[in-house]
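User: Second chain of the day. Same drill as before.
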Amino acid sequence: MEIKLLLLCLFPLASFFLQCNCHCAASKKKGTAASGIRGMFVFGSSLVDNGNNNFLQNKAKVNYLPYGIDFPYGPSGRYTNGKNVIDLLGEQLQLPGLIAPFADPSTKASKIVHGVNFAAGGSGILDDTGSFLGHVYSLTEQINKFEEVTLPELEAELGCNSTHLLSKYLFVVGMGGNDYTFNYFRPSLNGSTILDQGFASNLTNSLSQHLKKLYSFGGRKFVLMSLYPIGCIPMVKSFKPKQNYCLRELNRGVHQFNTQLKSMADAIKEQMPGSNLVIVNQYKIIMDIIKDPSSKGFKDAKRACCDLIPLSEGGNGVSCRKDGNVCGDRNAYVYFDGLHPTEAVNVHIANKAFSSYLKNEVYPINVSQLAKL
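Assistant: Same format as last time:
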């Protein structure tokens, strides 16, 4: 009799857990794209920002023309003429729509099921990078918002523990360039323009801690965007008019970071069992274009496509003049403004990231292969 009573008591409890697990499994299956990926959580700076700065109090906004001149919805806060790498990777992964920016008040409920973008232009791996611009989400703040706001909302929306779902999401991290450019062109931040190997180590060590935190939440698939050759951007000409071409000091610093990024990714994988990390070598992909633009379908790899606001008028060497002139053939230019690539270059990067089998472009596997693991 006691055994029967015990079974009667346990049966409803077992049924409850079974129903929860089934509901969770159903939620996982229902929202997963054909690629095997449910969505993306994006952390980074302007190269992957989908519009967060539109809602923040800072001086790094691009919610005006000519930005977005080729984007289906016009100016959106993307730092290019059209789509950025995140938009294009989402298309490659066959996700149902654009990844919404976290800071948009409407990014709630069903809008977060396929991911959220936390990236903010002007931010960096170091907490104080970009602080002179106003409020920009540092990498620390971005991950805190993911943990404190998005994860609980995702659990509520899908009806199960988010750690069971996160293995089906890509965690994309694209950050570090501002840590170099702002420290180089704004030496007052640290009293020095020397970017030695210790600086790169500081950045990659900090990044590894952030990745471990994302792993602890349940993240298993990571895409890390290496830094591109920022010594070659049009912004360099604004600060150093006599500079004929690429600024070697900056590119050397970036190369040190990228080398340590690869080493860090190899080492951290052992500390994060079951994880997989892919590095997209933007440095090589863009440098190959700069070295021989015509072979990749480009004509101008030095100038910005848009009319930049000069330093003499209070510009920063990066931003396009509001409603200013813009080149006619955007597909022929590598850079849209003083820092950011055109959509044509973003297409090139996204295609390489998704399908290249060259390990010096995507390491150790490509995003398509990562999605299927």
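The two ends are 50 Å apart (CA to CA).

User: Great, on to the next one.
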